[in-house]
């Protein structure tokens, strides 16, 4: 998609490319909706053989009890914060590469590498959830793993193509797998509310992520106006994108807000 989008932009401009993207998205996503079918209900024999520590959720009812627990809002807060900076590299790396005088193909390559690395990253983060690690621990791994490349590679070595390639791979791997932590969040919340609906939890987390994406747009534009310096030769921090780099690393770190909150509570209890 990055290479195709770049070619369309160069040949037809922004308006035509956006219209083509919208039409293609509709044609590819709407028809499969009519092929969806309800899952077969679990047979009574299998349900009788399955033991559960919580009473089953009555048919047709939805429990919001988990939303009254502080754990949900702490984890949701970290989810929104991470989302507010997550798209910055994908949105601005192409223009960043152009500002540094890199070949025009460099930007699409960076975007493709981020997407490529997110696939094994999502698998690994999902596997870590399955091992039984605490949700906050898995989120910490994803958050710190994505923040360090931002600060150390994009910020300090952002003028070298090789360094930026390593950055895109590491960032895509760890940041791209952040949404895979939601299964751990779901498990954490259902341990407090056994009647909580999986789809509802995922929907609310996705809504928080969408809110972060919407807010990141104007924030990114404002950050570009903070530093008026032009691209220099020694670090990404010295360019016009310096404030954005700091912001991206900061929000990536705060994605682990739940872990920091938990450690803070333990520290206060120890005192």
Question: Can you give a write-up of this model?
Answer:
- By secondary structure, the protein is an all-alpha fold.
- The chain has a domain at 113-263.
- Helices cover 72% and strands 0% of the residues.
- It has helices at residues 2-33, 44-49, 70-86, 88-99, 106-130, 135-157, 161-176, 182-190, 198-224, 242-254, 257-270.
- Helix 5 packs parallel to helix 7 and helix 8 (182-190) crosses helix 9 (198-224).
- The chain starts with a helix and ends with a helix.
- Residues 44-55 have low confidence and may be disordered.
Mean pLDDT across residues = 86
Structural class: mainly alpha
Please provide the ordered H/E string of secondary-structure elements: HHHHHHHHHHH
Beta-strand share of residues: under 5%
Rg for CA atoms: 21 Å
Reported for the largest beta sheet, the result is:
none
Helix content: over 70%
Low-confidence stretches: 44-55
Distance between the termini: 53 Å
Based on DSSP secondary structure assignment, what is the total number of beta strands? 0
Query: Any idea what the shape is?
Result: globular
Please, how many helices? 11
């Amino acid at each position: 998609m990055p290479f195709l989008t770049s070619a369309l932009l160069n040949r037809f401009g922004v308006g035509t490319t956006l219209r083509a993207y919208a039409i293609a998205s509709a044609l590819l996503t709407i028809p499969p909706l009519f092929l969806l079918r309800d899952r077969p209900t679990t047979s009574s024999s299998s349900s009788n053989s399955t033991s559960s520590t919580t009473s089953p959720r009555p048919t047709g009812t939805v429990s919001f009890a988990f939303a009254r627990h502080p754990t949900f809002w702490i984890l949701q807060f970290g989810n929104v914060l991470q989302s507010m900076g997550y798209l910055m590299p994908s949105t601005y790396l192409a223009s960043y590469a152009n500002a540094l005088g890199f070949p025009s193909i460099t930007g699409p390559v960076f975007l493709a590498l981020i997407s490529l690395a997110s696939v094994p990253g999502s698998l690994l983060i999902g596997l870590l959830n399955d091992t039984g690690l605490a949700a906050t621990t898995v989120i910490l791994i994803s958050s710190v793993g994505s923040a360090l490349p931002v600060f150390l590679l994009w910020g300090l070595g952002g003028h070298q193509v090789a360094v930026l390639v390593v950055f895109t791979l590491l960032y895509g791997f760890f940041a791209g797998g952040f949404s895979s932590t939601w299964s751990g969040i779901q498990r954490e919340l259902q341990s407090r509310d056994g009647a909580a609906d999986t789809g509802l939890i995922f929907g609310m987390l996705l809504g928080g992520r969408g809110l972060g994406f919407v807010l990141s747009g104007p924030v990114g534009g404002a950050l570009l106006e903070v530093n008026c310096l032009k691209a220099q030769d020694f670090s990404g921090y010295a360019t016009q994108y310096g404030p954005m780099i700091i912001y991206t690393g900061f929000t990536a770190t705060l994605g682990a807000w739940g872990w920091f909150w938990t450690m803070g509570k333990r520290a206060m209890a120890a005192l």
